[in-house]
Design goal:
Strand content: 15-25%
Order of helices and strands: EEEEEEEEE
Helix content: under 10%
CATH superfamily of one domain: Hexapeptide repeat proteins
Oligomer: single chain
Strand order of the largest sheet: 3-6-8-9
CATH topology of one domain: UDP N-Acetylglucosamine Acyltransferase, domain 1
Largest sheet: 4 strands, mixed
Length: 101
């Protein structure tokens, strides 16, 4: 699920070449697995993979791979929690067992 104003950059906008004319900053793919939630204004940079069931925080800048089932935020994005999942509709939340006293 993508929020608004998400920017996915597979390149650097302008080529940088060496003296022999070889490009030093080629474009690279971005891979986004299934069931990923990317928050408003996040930027995903070239060469990164976002694993299944990840949550990427608003305005985060993803500069490296994010493992599955993680929550990441910040500039650059870093994993804040692991073993997470998310649901789109609150009605889909699993029942939480009552706390014993």
């Amino acid at each position: 699920m993508l929020s608004s104003a998400v920017d996915m950059r597979t390149g650097d906008s302008h080529g940088i070449i060496d003296g022999a004319g070889r490009r030093l900053n080629p474009a690279e793919d971005i891979t986004i697995a299934d069931h990923v939630w990317i928050g408003r204004g996040a930027t995903i940079l070239k060469g990164t993979t976002i694993g299944a069931n990840c949550v990427v925080g608003a305005c985060a800048v993803v500069t490296k791979d994010l493992p599955a089932h993680t929550l990441a935020a910040g500039i650059p994005a870093r994993v804040l929690r692991d073993d997470v999942d998310w649901v789109r509709d609150l009605g889909d939340l699993p029942a939480v067992p009552a706390a014993s006293t």
